[in-house]
Structures are given as structure tokens and as C-alpha cells.
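Notebook entry, structure prediction.
Reason for the run: the old model in the group folder had no record of what sequence produced it. Starting over properly, with the input documented here first.
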Amino acid sequence: EPANLVLLDIRMPGKSGAELLPEIRTCYPDTAVIMITAIAGADVAIQCMKQGAYDYLIKPFSPDEVALSVERALEKRGLELENRDYQQNLEQKVEEQAKENRQIFLGAMRSLVFALEARDSYTAGHSRRVTEIAMATGKKLGLSGEELENLRWGSLLHDIGKIAVDPAIVNKPAKLTAAEYAHIMTHPVVGASIMQPVVRNKEIAGIIEHHHAHYDGGGFNQKLGGNDIPLLARIVCLADAYDAMTSNRPFRDALPRKEALAEIIRETGKQFDPLVAKAFLEIPVADIMPQKKKILIADDEPSIRLLVRSVLSNDYTVIEASDGQEAIEAAQEHRPALIVMDIFMPNKDGLQACFEIKANPTTKAMPVLMLTAIDHELDKKLSAEMGAAQYITKPFSPQELLDAIARLLKNSR
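New structure, fully documented this time:
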């Protein structure tokens, strides 16, 4: 363990104290050094002090002089160490607080993106799916942990600029006009402007601003091309396009995976970076298209079944039943991961159907989410007694349904 203090004579055989002093200060910066000499020259004293000595004692000296000098040197050393520790702790706390604030802000922005997507059942879950595809591609490319973390946040927030886009255009159930397309394609620049005051990370900002830049220099409102486009933005560009092609839209059905991959290949070197496209095409299907979980929706109202299907179809395989008996049979046949069921239905209501599903050993583990148009405490009590895991009241928002399903699926693992 290094000494707290060294009394060092200037003149010694071999290596002198003057030569040893800078070595001590370099190797043991926390050790205080007091120089001792028989020469009362000011030049020597000044030189020693410049090299980091705390004090300079001239022989002959009294014990009291030594004791006082040592006491002051150790006191000064203690204060310096305390101050350094305080500064380090303060800097660490400031950094931790700044990181926490960034995480809170990014989390809030992510929730805002999910809320924006939930306004349109066709784009619900888009940012999450883009993130999964981008992360799989980034890992294939061998990105570092820090790069992957930036890719994750940039992917989740890439469409944040759509907060400024007219919802009527975002949700338009038909192909966009040229003017509408121009309006919606302002969202990368708008998103970058929104995030600029708080997101200092250039990689995340680059994803938001340039995720529609094409490798060949095209892309609406984009001036970059080739490797001038940030790599992470090039990854998200492909992930975003692939998810758009393989998701349902109001004016068209989703493309089959095979056709979407063929389009990726056709656009390699044009819209997409060849390196990114190659990595993406080498990813196992299960990594970017995991087997969809089945969800059974049982409701006698076709409009409710249509709503649930439109909200869930991009992420889940949806099975429909129009009454309680059909729900029981569908649960046994398809073994869904979760059942969404109305309480009031003909030919066996939801409560009775739930009871029978929970009484059957082959279906009892399936979580049941009950729906009703009446927010009644008795219905909630009966639903729980019949084995339902949760209960939501109509009308419900798409996001409310998605959140409830996500919670139940997580708890059922």
C-alpha cells in the first residue's frame, strides 16, 4: 500500500531526491512529499515545489518543525482526497441523473409513438416490429452493444415526427395523393427537430432524420446517399420498408414474405444498402417473423370482431367465434394463447363459456379477457369467479386492448 507521506532527502547516493520526486508524483500521486536538504538555495526549493513537493525543510531542523510540516502535509493531502472523492461522486450523480432524465424522456416519447400508432389499427405495433427487425439485422452485422442500444432507441422513435402530421392523412383508407405523400414525408425532419434539444446522441438523431434516405441518393426530402447516410439509419430504412410491405394497410393487404423479400432484393443498391440487405436476407425467418400467437375473439357483434381483428392481425393470428358455444369449440380446436370474450352472447353467454373453458384440463390455462358494454361491479365479480383474468368495458381504445393483451400474455408465461 502506498505511503501517505515521504520525507525525501535531495542529496543521496545513486538516485538523488530531486530525480526521485517526479517518479513518486507520477506513480503515487496521492502521496505527499516533503523535501530535506542542507542547502538553503531558493532555486532548489522552487524547483522541488514545482515538481509537486508539499514542503521543503533545511537541515538542521527541529522535531517541532518536522512535526508541523508533516501535520500540514497530511491535512492538505486529506482535504485534496476528500475534494477529489466529492467531485467524482458529484460527477457520477450528475451523469446518473442525466441518464435517468434521458431514459424518462425517451420512454415518454416511446409511449407517445405507441399512442400515435394506436390511433390507426393498421400501424399499431409498427415501431416495435421495426425495432425487432433492425436489432436482428444489427446483430448480424456485428454491431457493438452501444450501437445496438442506439439502434433500439432510434428504431422505436423513428416515426416520432408523425405527431405533426394530419391524422386524417395518416389514417386515410386509400392511397395518398402526391401532396399528401409530401406532407407525411416531412416527419423525419420534424422528428429530428422535436428530439434535437434533448437527444444529444448523434446516432439516434441520425436514425430519426435519415431513415427514409435511399442508398442511391433518392428518398423524399433527403440529400444524403451511400455511406454518407448513417449506418443505423440505413438499417432502419430497410426494417421500416419490410414491415410496411408485410403489414396490412387500409388500401391494400400485406405482401407475402416471399414477395417482400423479392422487393428487397430488387431495391438493393437503390433504396437499400447492399451490406445491410445481405445481412437482413441471411437472418433466420424465426428471428424476424416469429410464429404468431393465436388469439380467439368471441363476440356476437361483427363490428367488435372486425375491430379486434384489425387491431391484432399484424401481430397475432386471430380466430373468431360469434357465441359462447363456438368459443368453447374454437378454444379446444385452435388452442389460442388468449381469449377475448363478450359477456352477453346468444347460445351460451360469455360467463358460462368461460366457466366451461376453465373447467376443461386442455383449455384451463388460457387467460380470458372479458368484454362488456356495462361497467357493473357484479359482472366483474362474476367474471373473476368464472376464471376470467381481466375485464374491460366497451367502448375501448385499440391501445387499451393491446395493453391488456400484452399484460395477460406476459403473466401467463
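Summary: DSSP finds 18 helices and eight strands in the chain.
The old model has been moved to the deprecated folder.
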